[in-house]
Amino acid sequence: MLKASGIITMITDFGDRDYFVGAVKGVILSINPEAKIVDITHNIAPGNIQEAAFTLLNCYSRFPEGTVHYCVVDPGVGSERSPLLVFNQKYYFIAPDNGVVYPAVKGTNYWAIDIYDMGERYLSRRVSSSFDGRDIFAQAAALLSRECNLDSLGELSREINVFELPLPKFRDLNLVGEVIHIDRFGNVISNITRREIRRLAKPCILIKGFRIDKEYEYYGQAPVGVPFYIQGSAGYIEISMRGHRADRFLKAKVGDEISLSGEADG
Amino acid sequence: MLKASGIITMITDFGDRDYFVGAVKGVILSINPEAKIVDITHNIAPGNIQEAAFTLLNCYSRFPEGTVHYCVVDPGVGSERSPLLVFNQKYYFIAPDNGVVYPAVKGTNYWAIDIYDMGERYLSRRVSSSFDGRDIFAQAAALLSRECNLDSLGELSREINVFELPLPKFRDLNLVGEVIHIDRFGNVISNITRREIRRLAKPCILIKGFRIDKEYEYYGQAPVGVPFYIQGSAGYIEISMRGHRADRFLKAKVGDEISLSGEADG
Amino acid sequence: MLKASGIITMITDFGDRDYFVGAVKGVILSINPEAKIVDITHNIAPGNIQEAAFTLLNCYSRFPEGTVHYCVVDPGVGSERSPLLVFNQKYYFIAPDNGVVYPAVKGTNYWAIDIYDMGERYLSRRVSSSFDGRDIFAQAAALLSRECNLDSLGELSREINVFELPLPKFRDLNLVGEVIHIDRFGNVISNITRREIRRLAKPCILIKGFRIDKEYEYYGQAPVGVPFYIQGSAGYIEISMRGHRADRFLKAKVGDEISLSGEADG
């Protein structure tokens, strides 16, 4: 049985100006005053499941085992999509069944339960159909953070909706990927991994008409004003610039094509 | 006697880039290292009492009893307006006497004390006349979160400045309200409540020249690109759109007129 | 020996939309689940050491003794610059050796240790050269927040890189300073202190072609729409306006010249 750490992380698109985050934290602390709520971000672009999935994927495993990850980006709020508890041997995830947790649990031995099937204790009186983050997900997260008797919770299932971060594909001899994130510094993060680039001799990246074949290990090595690539902190190839935002220089945005060519190594 | 929960929530207009929030949290933790500080928002528009009052009203009651709500939006900082502790049977509020807590405590059995009258322990050496959030309010919040002996605190009063969120009025047969909030998703929140709309048959909302008579229970039910109304999570009628920001489509902003017409039901 | 308070504050330029803050908090809580992480700001302008140093300087001393201040604004990430623990009799600072903590520790009896010299326990497996905030600084902060046996940590040094906030200079009879910060309210903060202005009779401030000789103690005293100066909460002279953003009115930005003239008092 996975012991709760008492930590609840939050990834949401609720923003940082509204009462939404406050209402959720209040519900959690009323149920478990000892819960340790950790803000990851509330600034996921509204309804952007890919951005939330990417964020969760790149930090969830840093937390202690037994952490509850509350990941509520829920464009289908109120509809038939189920509110879920997903768990594996290390973590709990509270999220709508729209695939947002899939990249994080994929490849692990995970199970899911519909929160509506978790028994009366888990069901608050729902006062609205537009804020399940407060009325359903917060309560489930708080109860889980306090205890963890999953035995009697309801029927376990492996069936959750799948959302895959886009994967690069081969076209002729090139690996064709896409931009999956732009970070705060303007770094352009691709979905091409280090492993893929290491297979090639003389790798070269093509994006928005630019050919980029200079690699540096860290930003300070690079000359100012010339785009280069780096093996980024999330394991992906990133295009960066020293002293400039690479995204603006390249006019790149999420979804743009980024491809890798080179000679097969060895 | 209301037992302190040890939780201090923060609603401020200090922003999320300055040292202001850090200084306040430091003062609080120096007095009560066990305090649990909960960020609600620091991004209230500068000096906007209505926005702060609306935010507080819509989440304060979700917190455990004995929570201290630090709500400092204080355009009159340094002037004769009093720094207040307001409390009722469930919560403490630390705020300037500009009405910001009034909508939350209205209708409850509340009492107020001027922090200047709360005795020497509550008075720090004020180093500036422009940051009472740090120099006065933080100390009071921290002391209250640690203990709660209000017996000897000073003279209780019912006299606090009143700030009312705008209420809709009847004009001919229409209920004329206004936009009181735009949320992160572009939803346009009116001050017309569900109760008022339920009284009418064939209700119709007028805003910025648009007639809106479609109601949905949740966003996913609606067709894309057509404004509709919904009974929002704060209890008010909201204008929303699926796949668009309703505020931009309607060119609506806080303070705009929004009115309700229909036929009296029954 | 400085006893750890268990509090770790964070000042970073990681932004509030990425996974960066989440990853750091996860690493910290995995090492010290009891750590109390306090967000000061993650919105320092990317790579802006002056802004981070100013923020740290103006709030670090409000925290309980034994607090660990994690201050990671690190344009030289991955390069030869050392990751440091700096400490004095009251606080620990975890930061790159780029001077960012210097204004806070200047004038105190401080010591520094290169984190790379702190022994194997402090060295995580570095997975990237571009996110030392997660891979090096977080671990050091977490270990320090849990214990504080500095005896065996490694060689102490006084040699850290110096970064000075700009100081005003005399030119003829005027004191010539500069704008060192614009706050959320549009207040224009100079590097001229109260002490300097108190030395003068009839002080007058010159900025961007405006002569400002009205001083008020707090904002509410001033007439609307006229710039004035105030002795700000950080100890510096600030230019403010009631009902307007002074920075926009004056078209002032960080680095602009602001000078003080007057008659020597007494």
CATH class of the largest domain in chain A: Alpha Beta
Structural class of chain A: alpha+beta
User: CATH-wise, what's the superfamily of the largest domain in chain A?
Assistant: S-adenosyl-l-methionine hydroxide adenosyltransferase, N-terminal
Judging from the principal axes of the Cα atoms, what is the shape of chain A? Answer: elongated
Largest sheet of chain A: 8 strands, antiparallel
Mean pLDDT metric of chain A: 92
Q: Gyration radius of chain A, to the nearest Å?
A: 21 Å
CATH architecture of the largest domain in chain A: 3-Layer(aba) Sandwich
Q: Percentage of helical residues of chain A?
A: 10-25%
CATH fold-level label of the largest domain in chain A = Rossmann fold
Order of helices and strands of chain A: EHEHEEEHEHEEEHEEEEHE
Beta content of chain A = 25-35%
Count of distinct strands of chain A: 14
Q: Treating each run of at least 4 consecutive H or I residues as one helix, how many helices of chain A?
A: 6
Termini separation of chain A: 47 Å
Looking at how many chains there are and whether they match, the oligomeric state comes to homotrimer
**Pair with the biggest interface:** A-C, 40 and 33 residues
